[in-house]
């Protein structure tokens, strides 16, 4: 995790507000119960560079996936938004994690009947 200074924590708050408290990869927000934890990721992978322009809000799942998929060299040299855009399914990990849990809860509450609850109509 690293030794972060006051500047990091101050800028982390600024960045979370700038990013509307949502993961910039999959769009998930924290739920207040410790799930969907949001993280300030260092875009250039340099934990000493705590400038708001070098921080981006990611959920724990997308952050872990990002570091598992790309080396520090690739992350340092690439535009993070381009990495997300190039792999259209990248942010689906975080979305599916939450979607799956919500689907189980709703099915349990309604005895597995509301199949239409999760159907999303396509917009024209």
Fold topology:
Layout: H1 6-18, E1 38-42, E2 55-59, H2 60-69, H3 72-77, H4 80-86, H5 92-109
Antiparallel strand pairs: 1-2
Low-confidence stretches: 116-124
Helix content: 40-55%
Strand content: 5-15%
- What's the total number of strands? 2
The total of helices stands at 5
The strand order across the widest sheet is 1-2
Instruction: Categorize the overall geometry.
Output: globular
- Tell me the span between the first and last alpha carbons: 44 Å
- Give the topology string: H per helix, E per strand: HEEHHHH
Q: Mean pLDDT score, rounded?
A: 77
Explain what you see.
- This protein is mostly helical and 124 residues long.
- The protein has one domain.
- Helices cover 44% and strands 8% of the residues.
- The chain has helices at 6-18, 60-69, 72-77, 80-86, 92-109; strands spanning 38-42, 55-59.
- The protein has a two-stranded antiparallel sheet with strand order 1-2.
- The longest helix has 18 residues, at 92-109.
- The radius of gyration is 17 Å and the shape is globular.
- The chain starts with 5 loop residues before the first helix and ends in a 15-residue tail after the last helix.
- The model is unreliable at 116-124 (pLDDT under 50).
